[in-house]
Write a structure and sequence with these properties.
This protein has 205 residues and is α/β, with parallel strands linked by helices. It has one domain (16-185): Ribonuclease H-like superfamily/Ribonuclease H (Nucleotidyltransferase, domain 5), CATH 3.30.420. Helix content is 39%, strand content 15%. The protein has seven helices and five strands, in the order E-E-H-H-E-H-H-E-E-H-H-H. It has helices spanning 44-49, 58-71, 82-88, 90-103, 138-161, 167-170, 176-185; strands at residues 16-22, 31-37, 74-80, 111-115, 127-130. A five-stranded mixed β-sheet has the order 3-2-1-4-5, sandwiched between helices. Helix 2 (58-71) packs across helix 5 and helix 3 crosses helix 4 (90-103). The protein is globular. It starts with 15 loop residues before the first strand and ends in a 20-residue tail after the last helix. The relative contact order is 0.22. The model is unreliable at 198-205 (pLDDT under 50).
Length: 205
C-alpha cells in the first residue's frame, strides 16, 4: 500500500527523465534499467499508483506499469547481460543500462534524476542522484516499476528452462534456496560468474 504521494521534480520548463535499475544484487541474469519522462501534471490514477517498485505487490506493479507506458511522454527499457556484467562489473553495467535506456527516449530529456548515489554523465545533460529516489520522485518510481516488471518477466521465462533455481520466486536474487540450488546443480548459463555465491559471504553490491 502507498503511504504517501510522491513528488514531481521540476526543472523549469525542461523535460525530466527518471532512471532506475533492477537486478543489481542478483546472482543470475541481466540488469535492466528504465528511463521515463512523465508529464508535468500526472493523473490522480498515476500519482496514486507510483511508488518504489519493491513496495508494491506484483498485481499493483503491473497496473502501474500500464499507466506508465500509456501516460508517459516517453519511456524505455534496456538491459545489459550477465556476460557484460562479468566483464565490466555490476555498477558499470547498471549505469550502461541506464544510458542505453536514455538513448531510446524521444524526445531527449533536459535533466536526468537517478535513484542511488552513483552515475556517469550522459551526454551533456545535467543529472542529480537521490538515495531512495524511487520512493521520493514520481519519475524515478515510474522507471523503477518498468525496470522491475520487465526483468521479472525475463526471469520467469528463464525459469521455464532452469526450474531448479526457483527463479519464479527469487528472480535470481541470492536467497537461501537459490544458493542451495547452485551448490547442488552448479551454475546455469546465465549466472554471473564474478559474483560470490557461498552462503557465508555477503554480496557487497
Amino acid at each position: 500500500m502507498k503511504s504517501k504521494f510522491l513528488l514531481q521534480f521540476n526543472y523549469g520548463s525542461g523535460l525530466v527523465a527518471g532512471c532506475d535499475e533492477a537486478g543489481r544484487g542478483c546472482l543470475a541474469g541481466p540488469v535492466f534499467a528504465a528511463a521515463v519522462i512523465i508529464p508535468d501534471v500526472v493523473s490522480k490514477e498515476m500519482a496514486g499508483a507510483l511508488n518504489d517498485s519493491k513496495l508494491l505487490k506484483p498485481q499493483m506493479r503491473e497496473y502501474a506499469r500500464t499507466l506508465v507506458e500509456t501516460q508517459s511522454i516517453a519511456c524505455s527499457v534496456a538491459m545489459v547481460d550477465h556476460q557484460e556484467i562479468d566483464r565490466i562489473n555490476i555498477l558499470q553495467a547498471s549505469i550502461k543500462a541506464m544510458h542505453l535506456a536514455l538513448e531510446q527516449l524521444s524526445p531527449q530529456p533536459d535533466c536526468i534524476i537517478v535513484d542511488g548515489n552513483r552515475f556517469i554523465p550522459y551526454k551533456f545533460i545535467p543529472h542529480q542522484c537521490f538515495v531512495k529516489g524511487d520512493g521520493t520522485y514520481l519519475a524515478i518510481a515510474a522507471a523503477s516499476i518498468l525496470a522491475k516488471t520487465y526483468r521479472d518477466a525475463y526471469m520467469l521465462e528463464q525459469h521455464l528452462s532452469h526450474p531448479q533455481y526457483g527463479w519464479d520466486k527469487n528472480k535470481g536474487y541470492p536467497t537461501m534456496a537459490h544458493r542451495t540450488a547452485i551448490e547442488q546443480y552448479g551454475l546455469s548459463p546465465i549466472h554471473r560468474k564474478t559474483f560470490r555465491t557461498n552462503q557465508s559471504i555477503s554480496l557487497s553490491i
